[in-house]
Each structure stands twice: as structure tokens, then as C-alpha cells.
Amino acid sequence: MSPSLLRRLVAEFVGTGLLVLFGAGSVVAALELNRGRLDYAGLGIISLAFGLVVALVIYAVGTTSGAHINPAVTVALAAARRFRWAEVAPYVVAQLLGALVGGLLIVAYVGSRATDLGSVGLTALGPGVNGVQGIVAEALGTFLLVFTIMAVAVDQRAPAGWAGFLIGLAVAVEIMLIGPFSGGSVNPARSFGPYVVNQLFGGSTPWSEFYVYVVGPLVGGVAGALCYDVVARPAAAVPPVGAAVEEGMPGAETPGEPSPEPRQRPSEVPAQSRREAPTRSQSKT
């Protein structure tokens, strides 16, 4: 494993851990203050907490790893030829481990109430919501998230410096919309960490619903990335088939050459060749 990849994996680990700690942790805090009940105002505060921590992580490690902090984002970018498939598995493992540690930290400061009252902030289907509806909800939320990432963090025409703020807003908005129905996870790692930690500490964990938080985000994320390429980007800005592998992706250099450390835009693998000057300076998840 190259030092460059290792550093990016550590960034994904830390970023996803912070996402779960302060995002899922806000669910536990809201339930604590409302004696186990969560109204829409409380959901709004949770949405804000998730949006803010996502934005902060983007600004902190976006230029290091792209700040995916979400397996669905990593897979979607690979499907859209903005990320190397060879690095998808290491990124996903780092994200899952970070989410697990984030869940453990919630229990570390909350104690047994984290499982007794808040189930470590895990996501579950709302009353009367079936699996298909949950998948649709998660897919729609992830579509919005990845569509926004493509627009403000990947597209070279996007104004610099706004990615973290706007992607954080997208996360907050999707939770406000689908949170009452599916929990608004849009992130398999965000669901995985609290599920495992809640199970480890004796909480009741709805594992039969976990597939919703894998299938929905993956489908919605890939759809969002591909839809942006087809609808929102002009033909001249779409890399030709094979260009992402041959020119734009880290690790595509000739074997034996040292891999450079480009400053990446958030969630992005630069589309230009190292032999070409970028169209504008690069500035995130």
C-alpha cells in the first residue's frame, strides 16, 4: 500500500468516524432531551448536526481523500469514472471501520443510555414503512446527495469554496424529507456503525432492515452520478470512454513512476491529464 493511499484511507476513517459521532450522536442527544420521543423540530436539529459535520469534514480532509465518507459516494464516483475501482474496496473498509469507532465513542460518553434510549442513533424504518418504500426513500435522498456532489465538487465549472456548505445542506434537506420514513441514512457506513455497536452492547438491532441502507444508497448514488453526466454536463466536458483510466485517475501513471500528490477537489479524481494544465484552480467528503 502506497503512503499516499494510506494517508487517504486514514482521512476517510477519521472523517466517517466524526460523521457518526456527531451525526448519530445528535440522534441520541435529541432522544435524551425528549425522553425517548422525537418530533419534527428535533429531526430538524439532527439534520443540522449532520449537515454541519459533513461540511466540516469536507473542508478538513476533502483535499486529502476527497472526503467521500460514504461507500455509496465512492461507488457512485467509480461508476461515473471519477474514481479508480481498484481503490473502492480499501475506501469502503476504512469508512466502515471509522463508522464503527464513531459508534463506540457515542457509547463511551453516553453509557448504557446510548443503547437503552437511542440505540446508538441507528436508522430504522418508520411505522408502516415497508422495505421497498425504504429503499425508494434512501435512493431518492442519495440521488440528491450525489447529484449535488457532482455539481459543486466534481464539475470543474463549480465555484470554488462552496462544496462543503452546499453538500452539507443537501444532507440536511434529505434528512428533513425522508428522515421520518427511513431515518435518512443515505450512507451504508452511517447505518453500519451504530447497528454493530448497538448489537455489541445488548441493544435491539433491526438487522432485517439493514439491506435497505445498502441497496437504496447504492442505487440512488449511481443514478445521481450518471444522471448528472447525462443531463447537466455539456458533451465537451464529459471525458471520452477510457480517459478516466488512462489520464485522470491516481495510480494510472506508468509503473515505476512516483505517484504525484494532486490537490483534489472534494470527492473528485481530477479529470485532466498530468500533462495538461487544469482549466481553473482546484479547491471537500
Automatic annotation (TrEMBL):
Q: Where is this region: Disordered?
A: 245-285
Question: Pfam families attached here?
Answer: MIP
Assign the protein's first listed, main location to one coarse class.
membrane
Q: Which compartment or compartments is the protein found in?
A: Cell membrane
Q: Can you tell me where the transmembrane regions are?
A: 40-61, 91-111, 131-154, 161-181, 210-231
What are the GO MF terms of this UniProt record?
Answer: water channel activity
Which keywords fit this entry according to its UniProt record?
Cell membrane, Membrane, Transmembrane, Transmembrane helix
The source's superkingdom equals Bacteria
Gene Ontology CC terms, in alphabetical order: plasma membrane
Where in this chain does the entry annotate a coiled-coil region?
A: none
Bilayer topology reads: Multi-pass membrane protein
Regarding protein family, the annotation reads: Belongs to the MIP/aquaporin (TC 1.A.8) family.
Which PANTHER family does the protein's record reference? AQUAPORIN TRANSPORTER, MIP17260P
The molecule here is called: Aquaporin family protein
Which organism is this protein's natural source? Nocardioides panacis
